[in-house]
């Protein structure tokens, strides 16, 4: 029952998918982070379903398919991670000291840099997704499932491993409620399970693709650790969202490169 509560809390917090209403408690949140990658798996499956519907049922153009595909992750998550990306860009572009940057992260108002870099991000994502749409041809629609799951595993690990930049906030609440050793093992299990499942179900090429995604996400994770400590003194929920959005764009771009090399 505790694990079910943790699963419901994770999906309710990090998505807009309909879930039963339960009372949030510290005990129920204990293993919520372990189910965070499940949200990415579901999001990737929904994205694959959209690609199939757009191509086989609706007969949409690649451009329209890509535009809706760009919007789908935001609709599934409610924009919680994109919000973190926008707040982070406002903070880092202020060029203020650590306290000022953290204050900007907490400020609910949207700054000019959030708008500017938010537009740049969406344009880049839509452009890369268009290239992915025209290259997948229905054979590789499930590629986003791999990196959307793993990126959440590493984003969750950042909350569990990095020092907290603030004394309160969403990241602190989940980190304090977590049974850290068990949850770290759970996140690591997700990171190992995805390439293993890709290899068993899809073959050697899918295993290689999963390993490419994992290497890229791990390299980004290492950079992110040093960068977040330097500029913010640790991790926050907004910064974890920034890492997730950055990782998603990097891996989607890598998907296009992998498909181009496969031809």
From TrEMBL:
<keyword id="KW-0808">Transferase</keyword>
<comment type="similarity">
    <text>Belongs to the CobS family.</text>
</comment>
<keyword id="KW-0460">Magnesium</keyword>
<feature type="transmembrane region" description="Helical">
    <location>
        <begin position="110"/>
        <end position="130"/>
    </location>
</feature>
<keyword id="KW-1003">Cell membrane</keyword>
<feature type="transmembrane region" description="Helical">
    <location>
        <begin position="35"/>
        <end position="53"/>
    </location>
</feature>
<feature type="transmembrane region" description="Helical">
    <location>
        <begin position="60"/>
        <end position="80"/>
    </location>
</feature>
<keyword id="KW-0812">Transmembrane</keyword>
<dbReference type="Pfam" id="PF02654">
    <property type="entry name" value="CobS"/>
</dbReference>
<comment type="pathway">
    <text>Cofactor biosynthesis; adenosylcobalamin biosynthesis; adenosylcobalamin from cob(II)yrinate a,c-diamide: step 7/7.</text>
</comment>
<dbReference type="InterPro" id="IPR003805">
    <property type="entry name" value="CobS"/>
</dbReference>
<comment type="function">
    <text>Joins adenosylcobinamide-GDP and alpha-ribazole to generate adenosylcobalamin (Ado-cobalamin). Also synthesizes adenosylcobalamin 5'-phosphate from adenosylcobinamide-GDP and alpha-ribazole 5'-phosphate.</text>
</comment>
<feature type="transmembrane region" description="Helical">
    <location>
        <begin position="240"/>
        <end position="261"/>
    </location>
</feature>
<protein>
    <recommendedName>
        <fullName>Adenosylcobinamide-GDP ribazoletransferase</fullName>
        <ecNumber>2.7.8.26</ecNumber>
    </recommendedName>
</protein>
<keyword id="KW-0472">Membrane</keyword>
<keyword id="KW-0169">Cobalamin biosynthesis</keyword>
<keyword id="KW-1133">Transmembrane helix</keyword>
<feature type="transmembrane region" description="Helical">
    <location>
        <begin position="209"/>
        <end position="228"/>
    </location>
</feature>
């Amino acid at each position: 029952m505790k694990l079910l509560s943790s699963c419901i809390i994770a999906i309710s917090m990090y998505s807009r998918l309909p879930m039963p209403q339960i009372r949030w408690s510290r005990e129920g949140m204990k293993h919520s982070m372990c189910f965070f990658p499940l949200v990415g798996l579901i999001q990737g499956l929904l994205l694959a379903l959209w690609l199939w519907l757009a191509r086989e049922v609706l007969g949409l153009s690649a451009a329209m398919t890509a535009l809706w595909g760009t919007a789908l992750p935001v609709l599934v998550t409610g924009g919680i991670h994109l919000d973190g990306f926008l707040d982070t860009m406002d903070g880092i572009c202020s060029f203020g000291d650590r306290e000022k940057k953290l204050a900007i992260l907490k400020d609910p108002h949207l700054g000019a840099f959030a708008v500017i870099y938010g537009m740049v991000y969406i344009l880049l994502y839509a452009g890369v997704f268009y290239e992915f749409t025209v290259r997948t041809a229905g054979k590789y629609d499930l590629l986003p499932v791999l990196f959307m799951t793993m990126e959440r595993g590493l984003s969750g690990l950042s909350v569990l491993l990095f020092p907290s930049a603030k004394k309160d906030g969403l990241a602190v609440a989940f980190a304090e409620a977590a049974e850290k050793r068990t949850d770290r093992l759970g996140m690591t299990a997700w990171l190992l399970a995805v390439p293993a499942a890709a290899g068993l179900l899809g073959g050697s090429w899918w295993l290689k693709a999963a390993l490419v995604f994992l290497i890229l996400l791990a390299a980004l994770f290492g950079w992110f650790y040093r960068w977040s400590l330097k500029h913010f003194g640790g991790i926050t929920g907004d910064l974890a969202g920034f890492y997730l959005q950055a990782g998603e764009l990097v891996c989607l771009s890598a998907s296009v490169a992998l498909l181009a090399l496969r031809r």
